[in-house]
Amino acid sequence: MQYMVSIQNKSNFHQCGGFLISEDFVVTAAHCDEPESPIHQILLGSHNLKVSNRLLKNIDYKCKPSTYRKPGLGDDIMLLKLSGRVHQSNRIRAVPLPTSKMNLKENEKCSVAGWGRISTFSSNVDDLRVVNVSIINPNICKKEWGYLPSKVICAGGYKTYQGFCQGDSGGPLVCQGKAVGVVSFNYYANCDYPNKPNVYTDLSEFLPWINKILREKKCV
């Protein structure tokens, strides 16, 4: 998982996950950067947050969809332009993105990773953790939540003890070797599953927006 990055605040503490998609761009969740808790730098090249053999990059600029308001209303995605290009190696490597809408099947096994809490009232961890989660039928997900924004994927947290938790926000949902989703929200920050399905931003719905930013090197 050489694509995983830790997005950190001005105190150099882990705030969110993210993933490298090119030599100078990272994807994360829009809600990871708010006025009361701005992000500051990105750690790459290590699965342990405490080791010295790691790479830190500042952020040149941040791009959010103009339609984003809060996670529960959707469009919870953000692109971060790194202050310099990253040399990809066996420690740092971008994750492939889908080229179009992926036909994810119900119960298809995917994975999510992060340095977030391992239970509702625990603390973030130093070592990257990975868990397998299953895709949930969109109709079931909508029924369980009552309301869901468009352009989301549901996986994990429902009828299982596996899912993401606070601190994992912004990390990728990886299916078939591609990053297809971005960790967005769960049920009232409750990670003591099972309860309602975990919700991810559907990355394929934002491919034109992402590709235009990568091509023009500016927010659009």
From TrEMBL:
<keyword id="KW-1015">Disulfide bond</keyword>
<feature type="domain" description="Peptidase S1">
    <location>
        <begin position="1"/>
        <end position="215"/>
    </location>
</feature>
<keyword id="KW-0378">Hydrolase</keyword>
<protein>
    <submittedName>
        <fullName>Granzyme B(G,H)</fullName>
    </submittedName>
</protein>
<dbReference type="InterPro" id="IPR009003">
    <property type="entry name" value="Peptidase_S1_PA"/>
</dbReference>
<dbReference type="InterPro" id="IPR018114">
    <property type="entry name" value="TRYPSIN_HIS"/>
</dbReference>
<dbReference type="InterPro" id="IPR043504">
    <property type="entry name" value="Peptidase_S1_PA_chymotrypsin"/>
</dbReference>
<keyword id="KW-0645">Protease</keyword>
<keyword id="KW-0720">Serine protease</keyword>
<dbReference type="GO" id="GO:0006508">
    <property type="term" value="P:proteolysis"/>
</dbReference>
<dbReference type="InterPro" id="IPR001254">
    <property type="entry name" value="Trypsin_dom"/>
</dbReference>
<dbReference type="Pfam" id="PF00089">
    <property type="entry name" value="Trypsin"/>
</dbReference>
<dbReference type="InterPro" id="IPR001314">
    <property type="entry name" value="Peptidase_S1A"/>
</dbReference>
<dbReference type="GO" id="GO:0004252">
    <property type="term" value="F:serine-type endopeptidase activity"/>
</dbReference>
